[in-house]
Amino acid sequence: MHKVYSIKKKKYSKKYFVNFVDFTFESIELDIDIITKYCITVDSELDDDTIAEAMDSQQYKNVKLAAYNYVSYKPRSETEVRRKLEEKNFGINHIDYAISFLYEFKLLDDEEYTKTFILNYIKRNPSGKFKLKQELRKRGIEENLISKSIINNYPNNDVLELAKIAADKHLRKVAHKPKEKQKNLIIDFLSRRGFEWDIILKTTENLFQ
After folding, report:
1. What CATH number labels 158-207?
2. Does residue 25 register a pLDDT over 80?
3. CATH class, range 59-108
4. What are the pLDDT digits (tens) for 128-140?
């Protein structure tokens, strides 16, 4: 058994330090509702199982809050959330719990995320389908969903216009170079942006005719 000798509010936090007389455990940090749930008071005695259970309950609260804060900043994919929580050293059970929580309250939706990502990305960085596939793979989106979303959301009818916008923007950065050098740089740039070769040729021909 481990006797509690003090419960002190943590500065700039809603958590409390729970300290034990025998120093078998270092101070543990718990929210007040966890402290109340397990009837933790000064001079109370807790066994190992109760302490472990209280700390586990706190971890479930911590992981849920961390997941919520991460997706509230901007839309995220499930894989991005998992990676973030792994970086914070949460265990797999806690991470699965947080993911279920996000889905339950419709804070996580890879299909909607993928659609929004495509539309926003090409608005900021006009790109071809290959580039979008690369970016979505980085974010852990499944191949089937990537293909489906690109078919449904990529503006195929405007791809030449997207390439022109991208080329015009990059041309301003290389306008001081010789014409032939400019053309080669634009070709390389459009290739990196994932445009297909026929679109790149048409764009450069129109730009340097």
Report:
1. 1.10.10
2. no
3. mainly alpha
4. 999 999 999 999 9
